[in-house]
Amino acid sequence: MTAESHDARPVSRMRLVVAAIAALALLWIAARWLWGGRIEPGLIAKTVEPAPGQPIGAALSETVPIRHEVIGTIQSRFPVAAASRVAARVLAVEAHAGERVRAGQTLVTLDPADLRGQLAEAEGELSAATGELVRASADQRRYAALFPRGSVTASERDAAEAAYRAAAGRTQRARAAVAAARAALGYATVRSPADGVVIERMVERGDMAMPGQPLMRLYDESAMRVELEVPEELARQISLGAPLAVTIDAIGASYRTRVGEIVPAADPQSRTFLVRAPIPSGAGLRPGMFARAVFAAGGETLLTVPRDAVTRIGQLDTVRVFARGATVIRMVSLGRRFGDRIEVLAGLAPGERVLLNAAAPPTMVEQSTDAAR
Question: What is the pLDDT of residues 18-28, one digit of tens each?
């Protein structure tokens, strides 16, 4: 081994030491560059300053009612269909859609010709049956008087009695037929069964009306209700008497009412239950209008802050947390609104105090005093 090789080893170790120190220095610089300017998670900035002369609110953990909105339709509580009770041709239609009618007012006039013929036929049958009854009654009396003297047999007497009873039955049926024919003749004039407003006329002059066929549809404008389609997952949370807030956007009206009826079967297509509630009649309220209803079902414990404590900075929601004489601007994640408070999903803890905006009225807040600190 030569002297030159001995001198090279210390030089190589020195170079390794220098390289290691340089690498550590570079790592330290990189770490400072990457993390040195970052803000503590959840914080935008921190200032230490005296408590401002502003109202202070608090982050509260509270149980709030959960409100659900469902849609529905305005309907009359007493829909009416004016239908024909006989088969006859329509002679005249006396009312039109949108017209207010009174109970007993003529709506449709039917051709009474066939009905009059049926009445005349029934009256003829009654006349014949009455004559037969008179003859059978006389025979029955005569045979009853002759039998004790032996002039007629028991069989002849019984036959006369049977003929009398048959004639009496035919007469009774004929009278009933005459009464039915007269009633049918009265049905040729279709009258309104109740006070209301005509929604739709379903026949025109010359049409053929059949028994049970609706000729007009009406509704009672003094008795209205809302029919709501409640999803099956919410149906078990609503009960009879539950309060509802109903809004009809078309006329800008809102009503307070209570559930009056729950149909205990779901629609197999929409998977909704039908819930009905009465509402007072008002100007412009019409069947078929769209309605929205809100009801409360259960409660949920949430963390909330006053809405006046939230400030929007760019795309971020922030609040100013006040503690130990310092204000910290903190990013928060927000949820639903409940009146003058808003749900906080992340960024705050229960009991923390937050500064309200200066323009906001100090509602349900504590003032920032030395004692509060």
Answer: 666 666 656 65
Whole-structure pTM value: 0.54
Q: What is the structure's pLDDT at 5?
A: 45
The 3-state secondary structure of the chain, one letter per residue: CCHHHHHHHHHHHHHHHHHHHHHHHHHHHHHHHHHCCCCCCCEEEEEECCCCCCEEEECEEEEEEEEEEEEEEEEECCEEEEECCCCEEEEEECCCCCCEECCCCEEEEECCHHHHHHHHHHHHHHHHHHHHHHHHHHHHHHHHHHHHHCCCCHHHHHHHHHHHHHHHHHHHHHHHHHHHHHHHHHCCEEECCCCEEEEEECCCCCCEECCCCEEEEEECCCCEEEEEEEEHHHHCCCCCCCEEEEEECCCCEEEEEECCEEEEEECCCCCEEEEEEEECCCCCCCCCCEEEEEEEEEEEEEEEEEHHHCEEECCEEEEEEEECCEEEEEEEEEEEEECCEEEEEECCCCCCEEECCCCCCCCCCEECCCCCC
> What average pLDDT does this structure show over 333-342?
84
Q: Which domains does the chain have, with CATH numbers?
A: 39-74+223-373 (2.40.30.170), 79-217 (2.40.50.100)
Instruction: Give residue 44's pLDDT band: very low, low, confident or very high (50, 70, 90).
Output: very low
Task: Tell me what pLDDT residue 10 has.
Answer: 53
The band of 365, judged by pLDDT with boundaries at 50, 70 and 90, is: very low
**How far out from the chain centre does Cα 182 lie?**
46
- State the greatest distance between any 2 C-alpha atoms of the chain, in Å, as a whole number: 180
d(CA 282, CA 170): 58
